[in-house]
Amino acid sequence: MALWGARFKKELNSKVNDFNSSIKFDSKFYKEDIEGSIAHVTMLGKQEIIEKESSQSIKKELKKIKEEIESGSLIIDETAEDIHMFIETELTKRLGDIGKKLHTARSRNDQVTLDLKLYLRNQIDILIEKLNCLIKAFCKKADKNLDVVMPGYTHMQRAQPITFAHHLMAYTEMFLRDISRLKDTRKRMNVLPLGSCALAGTTYNIDRYLVKELLDFDEVTQNSLDGVSDRDYCLELASDISMIMMHLSRISEEIILWSSWEFKFIELDDAFSTGSSIMPQKKNPDITELIRGKTGRVYGDLIGLLNLMKGLPLAYNKDMQEDKEAIFDAVETAKICIDTFIPMLETMKINKNNMRESANKGFINATDCSDYLVKKGMPFRDAYKVVGELVSYCIDNGKVLETLSIEEYKNANELFEEDIYKEISLENCIEKRKVVGGPAPSTVKKHIEDIMKNM
Question: How confident is residue 283, by pLDDT bands cut at 50, 70 and 90?
Answer without folding.
Answer: confident
